[in-house]
């Protein structure tokens, strides 16, 4: 069987055609601007699927990963922030099934990223895994006993909105001090700007200054690693997974901070913890969405 895996992100929509063995048969990527809202995103998702179906008309199912909380029984986005205006309440499964006449499975994008890593990446052959994606925000997902733990209200694994610093920096979820406000790439840019008085625009600029030995940025990164180690330690104690996988844009620069994270964890006596970098990069979500489609029951 051949299926499509689609990953709906804030800046682009990625699509893959995949067979049952996981071989990628075709791929496409369409730039999008999420701030333009629901109709714009839907149009771009439609174009992505259409382009793949033209090359692979025998694709039998479609899997879709999206930001937001998804009721995977109905395929509806039950909660989304204003990063995707109009997305909350939208039933992606109903729309895609009526548009393309194929069975569709939908899930949260962090869940699909973890499914991808479990299938073909850093979590291969593991049944108990926690994943954090350190990117524009902080995504999270759990697989326990071989199954995704989505929770009673579909926000299981949303580690990004667990509070790290009481009364800390305000978050777009309405709380203060969430993990996302200290461990995302966006947060790193803010923290570096606050510490130096220089208005950094991108994480890459911060990392370039880290590499050149800027002492204030080194201090910011030390604090970042301390917070990350604390979060990983807590997840390790709470869920005791076989491995914790770290993905997202910050992993591309892991050469600059991975050793200090390992040293920090060792200092915390977290000797049994197994922390691994994700292996699939920004394709994890689409690969996992394809896996989701493959495991969709025929009923
Ligand atoms: Zn939050």
Describe this structure in words.
The chain is α/β, with parallel strands linked by helices. The chain folds into two domains: 126 residues, Nucleotidyltransferase, domain 5; 153 residues, Nucleotidyltransferase, domain 5 (2-Layer Sandwich). 37% of the residues lie in helices and 21% in strands. The protein is built from nine helices and twelve strands. Strands 3-2-1-4-7 form a five-stranded mixed beta sheet. Strands 10-9-8-11-12 form a five-stranded mixed beta sheet, with helices on both faces. It has a two-stranded antiparallel sheet with strand order 5-6. Strand 11, helix 8 and strand 12 form a beta-alpha-beta unit. The mean pLDDT is 95. Zinc ion binds next to loops.
Beta-strand level of the residues, as a percent range?
A: 15-25%
Q: Please tell me the CATH architecture of the largest domain by its name.
A: 2-Layer Sandwich
Biggest sheet: strands, sense, closure? 5 strands, mixed
Shape: globular
Number of domain units: 2
CATH class of the largest domain: Alpha Beta
H/E element sequence: EEEHEEEHEHEEEHHHHEHEH
Radius of gyration in whole Å, from Cα? 19 Å
Task: Please state the average pLDDT score.
Answer: 95
């Amino acid at each position: 069987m051949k299926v499509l895996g689609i990953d709906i992100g804030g800046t682009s929509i990625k699509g893959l055609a995949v067979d049952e063995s996981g071989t990628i048969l075709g791929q496409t990527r369409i730039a999008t601007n999420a701030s333009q809202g629901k109709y714009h995103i839907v149009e771009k998702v439609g174009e992505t699927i259409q382009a793949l179906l033209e090359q692979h008309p025998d694709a039998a199912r479609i899997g879709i990963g999206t930001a937001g909380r998804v009721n995977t029984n109905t395929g509806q986005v039950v909660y989304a922030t204003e990063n995707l205006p109009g997305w909350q309440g939208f039933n992606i499964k109903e729309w895609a099934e009526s548009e393309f006449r194929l069975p569709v499975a939908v899930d949260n994008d962090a869940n699909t990223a973890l499914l991808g890593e479990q299938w073909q990446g850093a979590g291969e052959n593991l049944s108990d895994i926690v994943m954090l994606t350190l990117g524009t925000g902080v995504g999270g997902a759990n697989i326990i006993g071989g199954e995704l733990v989505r929770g009673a209200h579909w926000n299981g694994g949303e580690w990004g909105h667990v509070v790290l610093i009481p009364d800390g920096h305000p978050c777009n979820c309405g709380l203060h001090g969430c993990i996302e406000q200290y461990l995302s790439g966006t947060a790193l840019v803010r923290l570096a700007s606050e510490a130096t008085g220089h208005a950094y625009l991108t994480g890459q600029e911060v990392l370039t200054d880290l590499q050149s030995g800027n002492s204030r940025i080194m201090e910011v990164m030390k604090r970042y690693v301390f917070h990350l180690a604390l979060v990983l330690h807590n997840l390790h104690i709470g869920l005791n997974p076989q491995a914790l996988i770290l993905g997202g844009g910050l992993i591309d620069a892991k050469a600059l901070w991975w050793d200090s994270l390992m040293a920090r964890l060792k200092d915390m006596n977290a000797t049994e913890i197994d922390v691994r970098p994700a292996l699939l990069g920004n394709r994890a979500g689409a690969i996992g969405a394809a896996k989701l489609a493959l495991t969709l029951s025929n009923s």
